[in-house]
Design brief:
The protein is of the alpha/beta class. The chain is built from 17 helices and 14 strands. The strands form 3 sheets. Strands 3-2-1-4-5-6 form a 6-stranded parallel beta sheet, sandwiched between helices. A 6-stranded parallel beta sheet has the order 11-10-9-12-13-14. The protein has a two-stranded parallel sheet with strand order 7-8. Helix 16 links the parallel strand 12 and strand 13. The chain binds nicotinamide-adenine-dinucleotide.
Length: 443
């Protein structure tokens, strides 16, 4: 099938590459000229396991192309995906300007039937807005062309995006049109062989499904962080509690890790957006507001532990930071806990020596050159001359470090661990002051 994808970000690029891999002809359109030129040269703008060879192979075979020419994109595909960003507006609601801009572009250039598919995470009612926007623009052109708008939210996880798109758990499609249903079945047939994973529903339910999924996951994290704070104050160990509750199949072990707060481009913005949606309809979402508040508080935890250890005197201290991305296997630092920590440290007059396996360039792009941030080539180098180590991200190669090296390299044997990677008792035996999350010793 001929497919066009607007927006070559984490979602658009991965989805486009996977659709091309199974044989669809995909044109990717982005307004970012630099990104498009780089992609044509095989330079992939994001780190995502397996993505580089996948994009290169499909580009070389001609199944995927990259362009800034929106007209070409609109003319190409019967299926028009909108996968642009929906960042938070000033009040936290989702900013739809990019989505509506693409809708306008499609309306401007289309000359035959199109299925316009919202892949971006958009508030309930957005498909109606896109429908109205396109209809108005077509009327202004004096064009009478048939089109449908469908919702097809994306559930990929950064860090496992290629695998998730190749083998989705479910494909949610919101439409009330039989014609769209048939076309979407054909589009996704290569991903739907083992059993039927496609869940058709009405458009509004599909739009809400995406928010409900992310808010549920954010709630699980904030719930565990709340429990971890209680555990600390009550002298319990949250890691024991986690295993104790995870063994109940109604709860399960997935996604109940306590830590230094959730980040990324989705959970914070989607929880916020649903809170604003609720407020907009006169419903106060007590639960989601609390999920957000708990997360804000949790992100301050690392700094609070450092302040506790150093009696709130961090001026001229050097802190080693391991992990900058909001989670492992990605270079994405949007809303990462590391950023809250580093910015607090700078405010307190401390210096940061950081290492991340993939997010160093991103960190450089965000913060530029500054005297109080040194990006180090290895995790060991980040420790040189530092007063303490803070772990923000649970990258695999942080899990069994050389503790003797850490002990002899740091000025003080202090580790603040935002991901509970080590056993407190063993850390104590090794002579460290070890501050974890919800494990007794922390504040
Ligand atoms: P992103 O910021 O990585 O990419 C968005 C891209 O859209 C950018 O390259 C930007 O240049 C481009 N763009 C903006 N306006 C455009 C226009 N008018 N025409 C063409 N391109 C345009 O965003 P992302 O992380 O891929 O997220 C996209 C959407 O998918 C968001 O709504 C997000 O909430 C949702 N989503 C993201 C994830 C994730 O893990 N990142 C997962 C599921 C859903």
């Amino acid at each position: 099938m001929k497919v066009t994808v607007f927006g070559i970000g984490y979602v658009g690029l991965v989805q486009a590459a996977v659709l091309a891999e199974v044989g669809h002809e995909v044109v990717c359109v982005d307004v970012d000229q630099n990104k498009v030129e780089n992609l044509k040269q095989g330079i992939i703008p994001i780190y995502e396991p397996g993505l580089t060879p996948l994009v290169k192979e499909n580009y070389e075979s001609g199944r995927i192309t990259f362009t800034t020419d929106a007209e070409l994109g609109v003319k190409h595909g019967q299926m028009q995906f909108i996968a642009v960003g929906t960042p938070p507006d000033e009040d936290g609601s989702a900013d739809l300007q990019y989505v509506l801009a693409v809708a306008g572009t499609i309306a401007k250039y289309m000359d035959d039937y199109k299925v316009i598919i919202d892949k971006s995470t958009v508030p309930v009612g957005t498909a109606d807005k896109v429908q109205a926007h396109v209809a108005t623009a077509l009327a202004e052109r004096g064009a009478d062309i048939d089109f449908d708008v469908a919702s097809n939210p994306e559930f990929l996880k950064e860090g496992a995006a290629v695998a998730d798109c190749r083998k989705p758990d479910r494909i949610v499609i919101g439409t009330d049109s039989e014609r769209v249903e048939k076309l979407m079945r054909e589009l996704y047939a290569p991903f739907n062989r083992n059993h039927d994973k496609i869940i058709f529903m009405d458009v509004r339910s599909a739009e809400l499904t995406k928010y409900a999924a992310n808010c549920m996951l954010a709630t699980k994290i904030s719930f565990m962080n709340e429990m971890s704070n209680l555990a600390e104050k009550l002298g319990a160990d949250i890691e024991q509690v986690r295993k104790g509750i995870g063994s109940d199949p109604r709860i399960g072990y997935h996604f109940i890790y306590p830590g230094c707060g959730y980040g990324g481009s989705c959970f914070p913005k989607d929880v916020q957006a649903l809170v604003r949606t609720s407020q907009g309809i006169g419903y106060q979402s007590e639960l989601l507001e609390a999920v957000e508040r708990v997360n804000y508080r949790q992100k301050d935890k690392l700094m609070a532990n450092l302040n506790h250890h150093f009696n709130s005197d961090l001026k001229d201290k050097t802190i080693a930071v391991w992990g900058l991305s909001f989670k492992p296997n990605t270079d994405d630092m949007r809303e990462a806990s590391s950023r809250v920590l580093m910015e607090s440290l700078w405010q307190a007059g401390a210096k940061v020596q950081a290492f991340d396996p993939e997010a160093m360039e991103e960190c450089q792009r965000i913060y530029g050159n500054r005297d109080d941030l040194l990006l180090m080539g290895t995790k060991e180098a980040a420790l040189q001359g530092a007063d303490a180590l803070v772990i923000c991200t649970e990258w695999t190669n942080f899990r069994a470090p050389d503790f003797d090296f850490i002990a002899t390299t740091l000025k003080e044997k202090v580790i603040v661990d935002g991901r509970n990677l080590f056993e407190p008792v063993l850390m104590q035996e090794r002579g460290f002051s070890y501050y974890a999350i919800g494990r007794g010793d922390s504040i």
